[in-house]
Write a structure and sequence with these properties.
The chain is an alpha/beta fold. The chain has a single domain (3-189), classed as P-loop containing nucleotide triphosphate hydrolases (Rossmann fold, 3-Layer(aba) Sandwich). The protein has helices at residues 16-23, 34-39, 46-56, 63-79, 99-105, 122-136, 144-158, 161-165, 179-194; strands at 3-10, 29-33, 89-93, 109-118, 170-174. The protein has a five-stranded parallel beta sheet. Bound molecules: adenosine-5'-diphosphate. Adenosine-5'-diphosphate binds at residues 12-13, 16-17, 34-35, 38, 54-55, 59-61, 66, 94-95, 97, 101, 140, 150. This is Adenylate kinase active site lid domain-containing protein.
Length: 195
């Protein structure tokens, strides 16, 4: 059975994590962030080191281990009763991040909507990422070159994923608004998708 899924989509700093954390507290919605899955790996896990190497340069971790990490995690959550594929909706944040990942996930996900948190002003994203580097001690947000690299990877590899899902599924929301206003717009889309 394919998993009913809504993708949280947008560039680094667009606010996917902020919205995902709030929305994940709604009953029947589960927020899963690929970045969090990587950051929660134990130090003994070799993928943890791979993650640090790639993320530290602002690059994507290779596709196969990324998809496997996510797959093992969701299987676990289904097994433990945290996610019920019959009744629940997955809010997937940070995945898929390129066309190859989107294809690898087609067999598993029933994507019913894509929430595209869109910001046309790059400077705002850079400011947010720099503020987060201090607050959350994030290596990949710490220097300007890495931030620029991450934004370039987003433009070149991640943004084209929107075409994979098509205009009918994509809902674009202005991510330069305050978190409350972004949430209001996101909830309007989610409410429509429920009917
Ligand atoms: P942000 O929310 O700023 O986009 P994330 O926490 O989602 O950052 O991701 C941090 C880093 O984790 C990425 O820069 C990348 O190195 C790695 N990563 C996360 N998701 C994926 C993915 N789907 N494929 C490859 N690498 C990923």
């Amino acid at each position: 059975m394919k998993l009913r899924t809504i993708l949280l989509f947008g560039s680094p700093g667009a606010g996917k994590g902020t919205q995902g954390n709030i929305l994940g507290s709604i009953p029947t919605y589960l927020h899963v962030s690929s970045g969090d899955l990587f950051r929660n790996l134990r130090v003994q896990n070799p993928l943890g080191q791979t993650f640090l190497d790639y993320a530290g340069k602002g690059q994507l971790v290779p596709d196969e281990p990324t998809i496997k990490l996510w797959h093992d995690d969701i299987e676990n959550r289904i097994h433990n009763g945290i996610f019920n594929p019959e009744t629940d909706t997955l809010l997937l944040d940070g995945l898929p991040r390129n066309a190859a990942q989107a294809q690898l996930l087609d067999d598993t996900l029933n994507v019913v909507g894509v929430l595209n948190l869109f910001c046309k002003d790059l400077d705002i994203m850079v400011e947010r990422l720099q503020a987060r580097a201090l607050r959350e001690n994030r290596l990949d947000d710490a220097n300007l070159d890495t931030i620029r690299n991450r934004l370039e990877v987003y433009e070149a590899e991640t943004r084209p994923v929107l075409e994979h899902y098509g205009d009918d599924l994509v809902h674009t929301i202005d991510s330069t608004q305050t978190p409350v206003r972004v949430l209001r717009d996101v909830l309007a889309v989610l409410a429509n998708l429920e009917t």
